[in-house]
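Bit of a strange request maybe. I'm writing a small parser for structure token strings and I need a real example to test against, not something I typed by hand. Could someone generate the tokens for this chain?
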Amino acid sequence: MAQLDHIMYACPDLQAGIDEIYALTGVMPTMGGSHPGVGTRNALLSLGSLQYLEIIAPDPAQDLPGTTGQLLLNHGGSGVRSWAVASDNLSEVASQAAALGLESREIIDMSRTTPDGIELAWRLLFLQDPQMPFFIDWLESPHPALSTPTGCTLEQFSISTAKPDIYQGFLDSLGLPLEATSGPEGFTAQLNTPKGAVTLGAW
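Reply from user aminoacidic:
Good idea to test on real output. This should exercise your parser:
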């Protein structure tokens, strides 16, 4: 079964992103860890129901040229950049995508160490179309939503795309109860928080 796993909130500086989310929600994200070779590090807060918000930013301890971290630094702004879908069968997801004419990249293995020293390992699948979600299989790792600060929930996740029919067809094939609408490409998320409703805009 596939479900929205996490929303990636990108920013050029991690502490600034943490402060921004805390000011908006009243919940302080916790430090996650570094993604070696990707040039990024993150902080997290739970959205309940095995879902979470990932604040992702460049990792100044890594060499950034040619990495995602450099891309985030160059962009400069903050906002919802992408989103992930949890699945325990990434090969099947790739087959479903191919049936709709959507090409996939190779499945890759990822890992990071939490501040508590817990090793997390997972697998990722990206499609060639960067606006499509990416897919994550947490394998035997504990889900981050179970150990990150609580108090927020995801009320609505909105997808705007120049190809709503293709996007919606893919969402439907995965059994995801989300709607893709026609418009400028981007994502927004509405959260219920201790400070009330908060909308996170597109990156």
